[in-house]
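Weekly structure sync, notes
Attendees: PL (lead), two postdocs, one rotation student
Agenda item 3: pending single-chain targets
PL asked that the sequence for the first pending target be pasted directly into the notes so everyone works from the same version. It is reproduced below exactly as submitted, 125 residues in total.
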Amino acid sequence: MANISRTRRIDEQLKQELSLLIRKEIGDSRVMMISITLVKVVRDLSQAKVLVTYLGPTEERAEMVALLNEYASLFQRMLGKVLKLRKIPKFEFVYDEQLEKGNELSALITEAVQEDEARHKDHDE
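Predicted structure, written out during the meeting:
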């Protein structure tokens, strides 16, 4: 149990620190539209998957994730200097599709409700 809560604390700490580093170290104004949604560190701290969203144009999404992955080793070194962890994980940045999937699901539900209401309205008349 202690390992799980420790890992979660590390996840949150890395999320906060990476968010700051992204804005500070990358000289591209588009990084302001990047948000880290989740950091998931493996138990031995060797790797961390960093889920991100990008609020800019869809066409730029892959480019922004690639840019983050180019900076991953720099972020690892910089965090090694400021965090009191025995090991800083290697970061893998991945686009988080959950927000889009949630929006698509919400749109489908809204559409189904509207169709249902229209059918009921037709039957009532």
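Discussion points:
- The chain has a mean pLDDT of 87.
- Helices lie at 2-25, 61-82, 98-124.
Action: rotation student to compare against the earlier draft before next sync.
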